[in-house]
Design goal:
single chain; about 220 residues; 9 helices
Length: about 220
């Protein structure tokens, strides 16, 4: 019974992460097929690189073992790509706002293979960096800044290119929002880390000084 319980306790989180990867793969193209601007915005967000990198990063951040973080992040991304292309095969209309992967048509199988291999290869280092972001303090700040920096860079590059008129203002609004929010996230992460460092270490006197202060109070 204990063995069975231990097995379930280990497999359940893995199954949940792989299920989240499958959900990631279907949300973007499904939402992009809607005429609702809000759903189209959701489709844009979940069909671009930074959101997939964020997912792999969070998978790695949730795992204590760095090996497990790498393997699980890459596997979950590969599952997401598989589901993404399976949906596009079953629903071949080109999704509005889909930037990372174009619609169904000639070369669908080759694109699915390419992005599946790429997701598995890229997911491993991103998951590893997510696990390393668990390092407290300034030591882990650089890793924690990875996703907002990717989002800010991608949004800036997207906005530098003319948005297709067929995509309307929804795509531009999404990228403006992503860039602004990622900039805020960068500042908050840096500020919180510096504040924690100063509050936890910079404002504390050395151990001998603290002992002398306590000794003086007892006199």
């Amino acid at each position: 019974m204990k063995i069975a319980h231990s097995t379930r306790s280990r497999t359940a989180p893995i199954a949940a992460v792989l299920g989240a990867g499958a959900l990631l793969g279907i949300v973007g193209p499904f939402a992009s097929k809607s005429d609702n601007p809000a759903l189209q915005a959701v489709g844009v967000v979940f069909s671009v690189g930074w959101s997939w990198a964020c997912f792999a990063f969070l998978v790695g951040y949730s795992r204590r073992s760095r090996i497990e973080a790498s393997l699980l992040a890459s596997s979950a991304l590969a599952v997401g790509v598989t589901v993404y292309y399976l949906f596009k095969f079953l629903s071949p209309n080109v999704p509005a706002g889909g930037h990372v992967i174009s619609g169904a048509g000639d070369g669908l199988a080759s694109r699915a293979l390419f992005w599946g291999v790429a997701a598995f290869a890229i997911g491993a280092p991103v998951g590893l960096l997510g696990s390393m972001a668990r390092t407290p303090g300034i030591g882990g700040l650089g890793f924690r800044l990875l996703v907002p920096l990717i989002a800010f860079t991608e949004a800036s590059l997207r906005l530098a290119v003319d948005v297709d008129d067929s995509q309307g203002q929804v795509v531009e609004m999404v990228w403006v929002s992503v860039r602004a929010l990622s900039a805020v996230a960068i500042m908050l992460l840096m500020g919180q880390t510096v504040w924690s460092w100063r509050h936890g270490w910079g404002t504390r006197p050395p151990a001998p000084a603290r002992r002398r202060a306590v000794h003086d109070k007892l006199k």
